[in-house]
Specification:
D-Amino Acid Oxidase, Chain A, domain 2, 326 residues, FAD/NAD(P)-binding domain, binds flavin-adenine dinucleotide
Length: 326
């Protein structure tokens, strides 16, 4: 049995941020991830500047592709405008691996399946023991499944479905485009060119609304591919998109049970307006680590609920009976 103080399940931004903070405060920990790193994570990789600031990363010191946008080109139902402000894009395959390496915490490739609460801690798959457990395993996190689905149920109307692809492409248009609510999409589509010669394109929307409209995210993906070709943004490319689903923010602070925590997508913290989840993942990972190190309460109220729009535009989602657990 491998013993440590803190087991972190999942090595994405939430797990890596938590690991980084714990390591800096001399708390022994281990990250378990089912995939060997570097691993591909479906994500457009857009990050606002505070994500780098929270992790104390100087943009100049980041050793991989870091694209800087000084504005976002936005269209809302055909109304076009430019939103000024410094924004970044990273490639997740690079960023996540680098963050984990930078934390200095060992990563064990292990698919977590069974977790038991035992005297003084947690046993994972009969092979690992720790006093604290951090669930950073994303939408399908086993820590969420084992300890949190009853106390922090996920509301089905916060589920977002996506289709996305990132690929090498000699793009000529260096702007980042976001198209909201076109063709009755309850969400938005994007084109994100990245330094180093990559493009990320995708589409995301609220699953329940799509279903209620008899619509599918695939139809919106096809509309996006047509638009990219029509506008000359991506031509003569044979797409093979993949899908992933995750939950937007609801209001619940039941994210700690005894010495088990959920952070990032496992807790469902992505912003209500943009589905921005990297920043909330990093912040929640740090807050969980602070709770372990300093004994502070683990409370995510300080994490933003919206990225660009005012939070009051969105209904608060307390726990409700209509629940979909993954
Ligand atoms: C198409 C798409 C585009 C997006 N674009 C953006 C964007 O531009 N900006 C933004 O901020 N957010 C974006 N998001 C959201 C963002 O990707 C997530 O919110 C973010 O990755 C959450 O980080 P995390 O660390 O919580 O989880 P993840 O990054 O999902 O990491 C979870 C880790 O846990 C591991 N794991 C899972 N199950 C197990 C298990 N049983 N045992 C061991 N390990 C396990 C996985 O292998 C994975 O490495 C996007 C999401 C999608 C789907």
């Amino acid at each position: 049995m491998i013993k440590t103080d803190v087991l972190i399940v999942g090595g994405g931004p939430a797990g890596a941020a938590c690991a980084w903070y714990l390591q800096r405060h001399n708390v022994e920990c281990l990250v378990l991830d089912r995939e060997p790193f570097p691993r591909v994570k479906l994500c457009a990789g857009w990050i606002p500047p505070d994500v780098l600031a929270d992790l104390e990363i100087q943009p100049d010191a980041y050793p991989h592709s870091l694209t800087v946008f000084t504005s976002l080109r936005i269209a809302v139902r055909g109304l076009h405008f430019s939103l000024p402000g410094r924004q970044y894009a990273i490639r997740r395959v690079e960023f996540d691996h680098w963050l984990l390496q930078r934390s200095g915490v060992p990563l064990v490739t292990h698919h977590v399946r069974a977790i038991e609460r035992v005297e003084g801690g947690y046993v994972v798959d009969g092979a690992f023991f720790a006093r604290y457990l951090v669930g950073a395993g994303g939408t399908h996190c086993p820590v969420y499944r084992t300890f949190f689905q009853d106390v922090h149920p996920r509301a089905s109307d916060t589920l977002i479905v996506t289709q996305e692809e990132e690929f090498p492409y000699a793009y000529s248009d260096p702007h980042c485009y976001l198209w909201f609510m076109e063709h009755r999409l309850p969400g938005y589509a994007w084109y994100v060119p990245k330094s180093g010669g990559y493009v990320n394109v995708g589409v995301g929307g609220m699953a329940e609304t799509l279903k209620a409209n008899g619509d599918t995210i695939k139809r919106h993906w096809e509309a996006l591919v047509e638009k990219l070709a029509r506008r000359g943004l991506v031509r003569d490319y044979s797409f093979t998109p993949k899908g992933h689903s995750y939950y937007l923010r609801q209001d619940s602070n039941a994210l700690r049970v005894d010495n088990a925590f959920v952070v990032g997508d496992a807790a469902g913290l992505a912003t209500r307006d943009m589905g921005e989840g990297i920043g909330p993942a990093v912040k929640s990972g740090l807050l969980a680590a602070q709770a372990i190190v300093h004994g502070t309460p683990y409370c995510v109220d300080t994490i933003r609920r919206c990225s660009l729009l005012p939070a009051w535009l969105f209904k608060v989602h307390p726990r409700r009976p209509k629940v979909k657990n993954s």
